[in-house]
Amino acid sequence: MKQEKELYRDFLRSKNLKLTKPRLIIMEAVFENHEHFNVDDLYEQIKKKHKNVSRATIYRTVPLLVESGLIKQSLRCESKDIYEHTYGHENHLHFICENCGKIIESGFSEVANLIDTLAEKENFKISEYNLGARGFCKDCQK
Amino acid sequence: MKQEKELYRDFLRSKNLKLTKPRLIIMEAVFENHEHFNVDDLYEQIKKKHKNVSRATIYRTVPLLVESGLIKQSLRCESKDIYEHTYGHENHLHFICENCGKIIESGFSEVANLIDTLAEKENFKISEYNLGARGFCKDCQK
DNA sequence: ATTTTATTGAGAATGAATCTCAAATGCATA
DNA sequence: TATGCATTTGAGATTCATTCTCAATAAAAT
Predict the structure, then answer these.
(1) Is pLDDT above 70 for A49?
(2) What's the confidence (pLDDT) of residue B142?
(3) How many domains does chain B have?
């Protein structure tokens, strides 16, 4: 957590952005959690613990966290954008069980390498991978 | 196109749904195109042919086409749900440009093979792949 | 401490997707 | 071919996540 905070500070500084109280509160809330989250989750979490931060500010700050590389946008869920940590978390691909909703995380680098090659062929510069599959986990196949 | 229409008819019949004019117009519009599309694209396309169908009906009909297996939901683009054909189309992965929204399709089987191996390790049975990356196409990098 | 400039909060605005309901249509039956 | 009825449609209203606006506030530069 120390490190995330440092990285965040550096990022803000490098962009000439101010290190404001709401920005700190939001980033702390983000790293209290180790699950996927959406803006509303953050809002409620912050409301419970700290002083309030407006939804508008959360909506404005989350993209900064994404840009800083600390989190990334994940698959949408229930019509909401959801996010997941990237810092300190291996990139991974998701297997999502259509029956029980379980998310299984699996290897990544081999796949990413392959994708990189394909992207190069198209002259495409990747900023974020989106890799996974839906199906049935071992408990939900009968 | 003949076949798609047949499959669609059969699907509707099997669900005791009526083969109405709007449903036919929409499915024809869907299969005129060979690109990814969203509801608005369909609406405009249909309007051009002077066969108006309301947006509400398109929103109601697209899920039927998905359920029938003729199309599937693809990655979101510009805050809109987008769809792609599945019937008669190879699986592929998407590179989506964050700037201009262009979707580049690229190889698939090598990646899919790799993913299959990973899925096997987890004892996971894949029913649908979800493979791609966001970034910038060659025209949108400066 | 004062000035400058970015940031915030609150609510309004936007826009995709969904819902409502009276009118229209498909289709089974006579 | 006409009748009856359940389904479907269109148009607009509604919802809800996200973005925008702008006056008030806070950070940091001087």
Answers:
(1) yes
(2) 67
(3) 2
